[in-house]
Amino acid sequence: MELLKEYTILVDSREQHPLQFPEWLSVAHTHQKKSVSVHLAVQRHRLDTGDYLLKEAPLIGVVERKCGLPELHNNLITGDRPRFEACLRRLAEFPRPVLVLEGAMSLYGVKNANNLCPDPPLVLSTLNRVCSLYGIPVLFASDNRRMVGEWVARYLIDMAVAYNYPDPSENPCQDSSAPPQ
Question: Is the pLDDT of residue 5 over 60?
């Protein structure tokens, strides 16, 4: 896929504090060794899977975002795990899913997190094990919401370009099975 001049980031309407996205984003040009600017629009939309999708390539990349140890503790340890695993199963249907953990890495350390979460090592080990079962990579991101927003937008656009979306038949690595619902 050639780069478009404008992309729209779909943000799940249930996101209470969505990431911040710049109006313009520099991304790598498809065929030249330089970056170019693309315009970003943002639309709130109820998404079946994930928190962020690219409107122009909704079946390629998907981003699920978690805001830290307390949310992960709730998702993995205190009874919300079946729903979280159902989310991971849906994410795994996409060719390029990613789980983004927002917040400075130091917040996830055992010493600094005890006041936020009763057992940080339990949460992080459980997260690693559950995500590995579904093949979902985990990215520890900054606590700067704009920087995370830029990374998410760039990731979704780059995955669309890498997969030649909307014509994935041009990509020999693309699975020929039916797209995710």
Answer: yes
